[in-house]
Amino acid sequence: MALLNRYVHHVRKHLPKAQRDDIAAEISEMLASQIEGQQAELGRPLTEEEEAALLKRFGHPLIVAGRYGSREYLIGPAIYPFYCFVLRVAAWIGAPLIVFLLLMTALTSEEPDRQVPLTFWILSNVALAAFGLVTLVFARLERLKDQFDLPQAWDPRDLSRAPDSREPRSRWEPVGSLLAVAFYFLWWIDILPLGRLNQWMGGSPSGVDLAPVWQALNPAIVTLMVATMAADALRIARPQAMRFHESLWLVIQLAVLVVLYQLVLADALMVPVADPPTALPPLFNTMTRVGLSAIGVATLASTFFTVRRLVLLVRPRTPATLSCV
User: Fold this and answer.
1) What is the pTM of this model?
2) What is the rounded distance in angstroms from the CA atom of residue 158 to the CA atom of residue 167?
3) Quick one: which of 21, 88, 299, 308 has the fewest CB in 10 Å?
4) CA-to-CA distance for 255 and 259, rounded, in angstroms?
């Protein structure tokens, strides 16, 4: 009953935390009983369309969760998921921007020990003000929610999978990753000489080239690209082997963090090749270092979610837990 598990998961995440598991188990048992009763009447298992119709009659996950919540909210269960979504989007956009601005301040300021804390204080106040504004807007929407209805044209089959779902993911994600990494791999080993494209089009050389640290780390970089392409190919061929895929991807991410760490700490990432030297290498060094730092932050966050998915996949599931996800 993958569709039932998915539906109950979406109800569960909007329930009060203290009673979340008990209520989700109750809803799961109730729906499983209805499905079994309908199957007994028909003398066959329900099709996915019939199961979706039954879940749709039971109600939208937000409405079902709202039936079990308290009546006094600043932001109630019908509005709260959208509130969290907006905050998550703001955090995903704002956090890298804050890190970038702090890195730029540290790398370009003449007094970083004074300017970095000041910049952080200003950005923290801006983030706090934005959080307060979003909260006030959604608190107002909570007061007006009775004037609006959730869309009726929803389909349980459109609900996303639970984070610990054993259902294999779509093949399109590894296909896109494989193509992108293959492109960069061919560029890196100079089969696609994109670095000379500017000269072919009549432009002038930039006057900078990669520093020796890149050559020293080249075997590791090539190995990581090949390993990533192999991992994507395995995900396409065997999408059911989710534990293996997540374990392999975790190893690759940790190795990427090690390589990024060595690059960020290198004395130079770009060196001049023009005679006389131009002023571009310091600028290119700063831009490259900031870019690698941003990639490192994103990779670290991705590693955290990979570990979380792997723990959920490895963790044994009891029958009660299975019915609640």
Assistant:
1) 0.52
2) 14
3) 88
4) 6
What are the structural domain ranges in the chain? 1-162, 172-197+205-320
Question: In 10 A of CB 232, how many CB atoms?
Answer: 23
Please check whether residue 174 is in contact with residue 232, taking contact to mean a CB–CB distance below 8 angstroms.
yes
Q: Is 272 helix (H, G, I), strand (E, B) or coil?
A: strand
Q: How far apart are CA 26 and CA 31, in angstroms?
A: 9
Which conformational region is residue 149 in: left (phi greater than 0), alpha (psi within -120 to 50 degrees), or beta? beta
Q: Identify whether the C-beta of residue 222 lies closer than 8 Å to the C-beta of residue 152.
A: no
Report the 10 Å Cβ neighbour count for 80: 19
* Pick from 270, 273, 269: nearest CA to 199: 273
**What are the tens digits of pLDDT across the range 222-257?**
999 999 999 989 888 887 778 888 899 999 999 999
Poorest-confidence range of 7-11, 15-19, 101-105, 164-168?
164-168
Q: DSSP state, 146?
A: G
pLDDT, residue 107, reads 73
| Average pLDDT along the chain | 76
Alpha-carbon gap, residue 18 to 241, rounded angstroms:
34
Distance CA 125, CA 98 (A): 12
Q: Confirm if 287 and 107 have CB atoms less than 8 A apart.
A: no
Residue with tokens 């900078």: 208
Residue 222: the pLDDT is 93
